[in-house]
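Field reference: sequence -> structure
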Amino acid sequence: HFLHSSVQAQVRLLICCGRTSAMMISGRSVAGMRPAADAGPTRARVGKCAAAKRLFALDFDGVICDSCGESSMSAFKAATVQWPEIFSTAEAEARKPELLEKMRAVRPVVETGYENVVQIRCLYEGMGVQEMLDGWSSILPAHMKTWELERAKLVQLFGKVRDDWIAADLAGWLAPNRIYEGVAAPVAAALAQEELYIVTTKPAAYTEILMREMA
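Structure field:
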């Protein structure tokens, strides 16, 4: 995932890279090497390529949308279903703001949504933020084994929690999400004028709702 600093700068960088790549490929040359002797045809190929639609592939979470709030709240809801004896207690409810804040801090190591459920349990059990950031690739499988969790079932649970939330309260589900400032307009322009794809592990249905309702 990209860490969001200036998405507009990222879009400009992608545009610049797209033009550079087109020229290099059409000219059959790389930095430090002279192009082929038939400079005329090469220039013609460059011009034709530069006029073609450019292709953009953007990640979604962390580039277009800050979904950390929603995924953390969904994780708490899913944990309440998975471990009601822990997360349905007054203690867990009292610690909810603390846990959600820590979930934002450990979000960079998450690759797929279901991992949020394991993260929030680890944080509840007292694991530190830095420990999780440093060792998540080994912490995840170790705790999946310790707690006898199955990936497919957690994926299903996390999805069902989100589906039920959307069905019951779409506005409430949208509220913790936000499109980064200054992103909607350039993305809309790229959709209209170029060829743009969103590459994400987030289910398409959720991505489409967020793009339609918020961007």
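Note: Residues 1-49 have pLDDT under 50 and may be disordered.
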